[in-house]
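Why predict the complex rather than its parts? Because the way molecules touch one another can change local conformation, and only a joint prediction can capture that. The input here totals 1030 residues.
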Amino acid sequence: MKKILLSMLLVLAAFSAFGCEAKTETEAITIDFWHMSPVGSESYAATKAIINSFNDSQDRYFIKGTGFSFWDYWDKIAVAISSRTAPDIGLSTIDDVVTRAEAGVLYNITDLIAADPGSIDLGELYQSQLDFATYDGDLYALPFTATCRVLYYNLDMFETVGLTEDDVPHTWSELYTVAKQLDVVNDQGEIQQLGFDPTYGNATYHGWLWEAGLDFFDEDLNPTLNTQEYVDILNWIIDFNGEYSRSQLTAFGDANTMLGINPFAGERVAMMVETDGLYQTIKNSGADFNYGVTYIPIPDDNGIRVNWGSGFSIEMYDNGKGEDDQKQGAWEFYKYLMSYDVQMELSTANGWIMAHKGAMQTVSVGDPILTRLIEEVQYARDKVYVPYAPSWHGNDWQPYYNNALTGEMTAAEALAAARENYLQKKANWEATHQG
Amino acid sequence: MSEVIVKTRYHSRKLRTRIVHIILHIVLVLCSFVFVFPFLWMLFTALKTPAELLQGIRVFLPQDPQWSNFIEAITKIPFFMYLKNSLIIVVLVVFGTVMSATTAAYAFAKLRWKGRDRWFIVMLATMMLPIQVILIPTYVLYAKIGWLGTRLPLIVPAFFGGGAAFYIFLLRQFFKGIPKELTESAIIDGANHFQIFLKIMLPLSKPAIMTVALFTFMGTWNDYFGPLIFLSNPDHWTLALGLRAFQTQYGGQYNLMMAASILIMLPTLILFFFAQKTFIEGIKFTGIKG
Amino acid sequence: MSKTSSVKKLKKQENLVGYLFASPWLLGLIVLGLFPILLSFYFSFTNYNMISAPTFVGFENYRILLTNDNLFWKSMYNTVYHVVIAVPLGIFVGISLALLLNNKIRGISVYRTMFYLPNVVSIVAMTLLWMWLFQPNFGLINQLLKPLYNLFHMEPIGWYLDQNLSKLTLILMGLWTAGGSMVIYLAQMQDIPTTLYESAEIDGAGWWQKTFHITLPLMTPSIFFNFIMGLIGSFQVFTIAYIMTNGGPSRSTYYYAYYLFDKMMIDKAMGMASAMAWILLVIVLVVTILALRLNKYVFYLGEEA
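Output of the joint prediction:
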């Protein structure tokens, strides 16, 4: 009995110990900033430095930054937004800014800029990104980072078969010719090295479609996928490495792509469509082969130079509590984050492509690959946001895509089935959005 | 004559047991290899250099074991602060869970009260709703009562059987296995239910309680989601959550992550090793012949 | 006379004491649990994208799921398939492991710890391992089985890449964590009075008889437990497919809970996801209540006979 009383006392003591949080009294107003560089990550130091220098430069506001790992960030911010406990300033995705703006959880950036003239130079930002952040004529977020997709090519492998930088392909037929020269298969029929595969890396079906002037949806957000051109392009993808069995290709792909280990960086694939992030990965790993980047090859006729790029948005959240002081402080920090110096600092330290064109120009001097990457950002375009199928390119498309690739369904069947699915989702969505 | 027979019978039985033991050992070793493999994998990954990570499975054994990865994993994050936070939460949760689960289990196992069987079904039903759909409503609740940003959402429910339906059911099964004669003779001697609970039920259920403590420890120790959602001050973060810092958008530092994972795994393993020793002690009382 | 009156008094108090003992749990359920549960039930009748306020839509979510959603039935089938096979298999393997490890040979503690290891190891490491073992082209298992394939002139088994075998493969992978149920069985085995074994041995019983007439019957409380828990748990199978197969190939491992997760996190349709959760609850509840009838076959040492 005594033992139990004692342990209960201990428990009570423990409760009181941590229950009372020590309240540090500061004059400054605390501003919450959420980002994706948690303590221990590679980009933590630079992010912390930037926050610290802002705090040191003035004492009216105190920026409290919290970093979450990339995978956890989205759960955290989603729950926070839905319960109106979002941070004062945070990152998010650009393509669905509209849904948040519509719901009234974001502060109007256009109004803030208008009340503070000269604060932010919108000319330094990419128009396509700004368009995505616009709702009802006003900006509700600004682009913070930018990404793009390019073709990486391994010059060492080119050299082995007698090719040079001049032979880098720019059209689909050139791509095919060059790729076939770079395939290496051993005596047992196992693929040792592959020239190129239109499904590897970050290549997507819609990316290829865009180059031919097509897309999954029309202007009214109705699903397309219903003409011969779609079938032809899908067949081009399926047949590119058609001389190998799909199981051979999957084995080769699986053997190299396991959780972040990249076939191009591992020198198993000669050319690959990838994001700008691969550049950072290769740099960090210390791999030392010769390579370059160029724009993704386009169709021989009427091809359009375009790639899928997005980026994070930076937003100020309105929790509906009328916290004007915090709003003002967040705005000051917002301007700071979008300034030339800070954008340059973040890019140099973390290897990100930031949204500020001027800053990126300066950073890329002397770095040929980064220069090329930034050049491609101009041609980058984000995917359209479809409310009834937010993951139209992922969850709703992948199963049909994979079936077409493995031969389970023909290209035409897969496209028709995918289209059916979108139509059903659209009907269901409309049924629950009448009220 | 009979002596010889007894001796040969004894020897042949001893030989048989020996052979059985050897076969057992062989089977165990083979099976163990299968079960230990994942851990070996983690260990090798933890010892690789970033370049080796890029090679994926083609390089199974690290060529130049980087034991320093373990040190780096500890120093890159505030390991000991996270450790302290994990301990605070885990100790309280294990204590609270054992307390509330044993009492509820006793009620379901040995006592007759109105609606008991219907509440039992309700208890089982609480395990049938996937946690994802409860998440936002729970968050809203804690926001309304002002517990957000504190450790309370992670600790208080444990003292009230939160998430303990599994353990309540488990302990109920074990309590039901304790012979009626013991409880009845105690009642006749004038004991009340509290004394029966404390002096008979609990001491006799050590293996089961150990199991509950072990599983609760493991679940809480490894839980990153609860701390992620409910803690707002990074100084309160637990090890499981802090570990995720090594996972970034483009892959991450997998060698460091594995190194940290192994370190985090060790307490559970050690706890298990000692906990299962109680499973050898056998039973505390000899069966009472009715 | 005082003895019977104390027994009588105890019986009268039993109702009150019962509630008293159950009160921590009961309080927790009503104060902390009821609100979220009721709220999620309410959400199932709304359209809620987790950003704007929910709008009431009546039974629309349920109607759509049950009549106009091809993935609903597909994912339900996948989950039921999984339950029907994984639960009995899991019990069989768990009991076998426990019987194997209930021996007093040297180093048994080490063996037990090793068998339990997969439950402690991170799921990320387990996934890499499974890929390494089960990959149809370069995985270890198919390499080992190559002679057999050549002998019978058959294609190597596609394991998790074959839509007809993927669910079975995932079930097989799930067995790695059988150590969890093994622990519970081991704990139960310690409660079996050694005198029973002793008297059986005197009567000349061998290992088989001892196991089937003493050990297993007296293990029925924990077998029953693992059966019910196995049912409830396997209806929510999700993580393994999420990490390994993305629900493929051809949605063959797209479980009900996976679809629910996608509805919530990707389609941002919390109302629909809540409806899915409540449909699942009703199904599992009915199945469990039926399964609870098996309680009459369970032999509790602490009850009668």
